[in-house]
Here is the input.
Amino acid sequence: MAKGTYTYEYPRPSVTTDCVIFGFDTEGLSVLLIERGIEPFKGCWAFPGGFMQMDEDAETCARRELEEETGLKADYVEQFGTFSDVNRDPRGRTVTIAHYALVKKSEVKGADDAAQAKWFPIGNIPPLAFDHDRILRVALKALREKIHFEPVGFELLPSVFTMPQLQDLYESILDVKFDRRNFSNKMLKLGILTEVNDGTIRKGTRNPIKYSFNQDNYNQMKAKGFRLEF
Amino acid sequence: MAKGTYTYEYPRPSVTTDCVIFGFDTEGLSVLLIERGIEPFKGCWAFPGGFMQMDEDAETCARRELEEETGLKADYVEQFGTFSDVNRDPRGRTVTIAHYALVKKSEVKGADDAAQAKWFPIGNIPPLAFDHDRILRVALKALREKIHFEPVGFELLPSVFTMPQLQDLYESILDVKFDRRNFSNKMLKLGILTEVNDGTIRKGTRNPIKYSFNQDNYNQMKAKGFRLEF
DNA sequence: AATGTTTTGTGTAATTTTTACACATGGAAT
DNA sequence: ATTCCATGTGTAAAAATTACACAAAACATT
Here is the structure.
């Protein structure tokens, strides 16, 4: 958008989007942050985000900023809240429409060799800029509630995964422990997992069974009124 | 806010709030709408709402507009989504931060003798302006999900109510039917209802037991990790 | 005034869901 | 070679959910 002058009869806040990017691997749940090189909050970390253009809606903006600032294209982006405290940005009145993105950390690269972007485990977050600590708390809460009713966990795992991986993911997000047998039974009974046969013959149990998420079946079941609950 | 000229280097959308007002009585769940007297969407109905001022956050704005346009002061106002489609308002680019308000319809008056405000049962909504039909759908979904985990139903009932009233409320919001005994057992077991003794001696069962919501007890239980689930 | 109808409160048995729990296998590490 | 560890698997006990019927008084009808 070209710089110029735009005049209105009443003052308007700036509108931005921010994107909390969740990733998951053997280290657990983490978020991708960008180090601020300039004031305010120079040296603090922040979520990628920026001004909404006049020809894009909020989600489009969040996806664009995400890619511009980290190189990531996220499959899953969802709005979870809008933050409008009067003094949330010292530079001026700004309203931000906050999103979270779920990315398959295992299947993306770059991202953390991009500029100052870096993954931080959820239990070890550095000082954040603006009201981003609050935004992160709300994002986590939203993700936790979401995963009870929607199969969003699979957006964070490789497309082929094992039952222990899936359990680790749920345990990381919900911050609880499950019994292995009960977790497995419950998951399998949902009918949304497909056993992946990659040709290898399994002997013993040490090498785990591979699964993929059966999106088609989930969609069908959902259309028939099935409601995932975990 | 005084009219004048406000100039920015980049174009900015307008930011508004809208408020879906839910009420409940023997007719079931309904929403309070305002008839538009001017184009666009003249004659259509809309949620109360308006431009966010520079010195107020979104919820403050929603409450202010609610009172200005309907005379209602709502106890419970909560943001549930922000709508930013590029063409959602033909007059220009506008982003709206949508809220729902829960009001004790039985304990307010006015409201529907205010100007063109009128309650409509949820099953009989007139044509709505802008994208307000979509906003209403999302609001209903948000309310339905909310009531599973938070005791928001009591915001819609008189402060003293009966078990059948409470059941009607849940049935209206969730659009399901419950068995009377099971519903009552479950509710009472939650430990958030206090039996109200209004002095009258009950003979027989035709005149129902009165209850009130025990907010203090709920807060205490919640602090101890109790999580309401219905 | 008598009669029928509606609203409400209440408990238990059957079913379903959730929880707790232990061992055998073979790969990995020593 | 030995030990250690990750994984897969089933069942019995406990808990939660569901289904279900009658009695009392208020209310409506005649």
User: Anything to note?
Assistant: The radius of gyration of chain B is 20 Å. Residues 20 and 100 of chain B are 4 Å apart (CA to CA). Chain B has a mean pLDDT of 95.
